[in-house]
Specification:
Blueprint lengths: L1 H52 L1
């Protein structure tokens, strides 16, 4: 009886665990791509500003 309860709990917990892992990976991917985009934008802004000064 206990093993059956454990198995049913695991089967419920498994999709949750997978979705948690997936969302964490997705968040990390979004964060890194955003960071790269921001870095590129600030770099291009800095370059154009530097060109305007000269």
């Amino acid at each position: 009886m206990t093993s059956l309860l454990f198995l049913s709990y695991m089967s419920i917990d498994l999709p949750y665990q997978i979705s948690l892992e997936f969302s964490r990976t997705l968040l990390y991917f979004v964060y890194t791509s955003l960071k790269d985009t921001i870095k590129a934008i600030t770099f291009s802004n800095f370059s154009s500003r530097k060109e305007k000064i000269h």
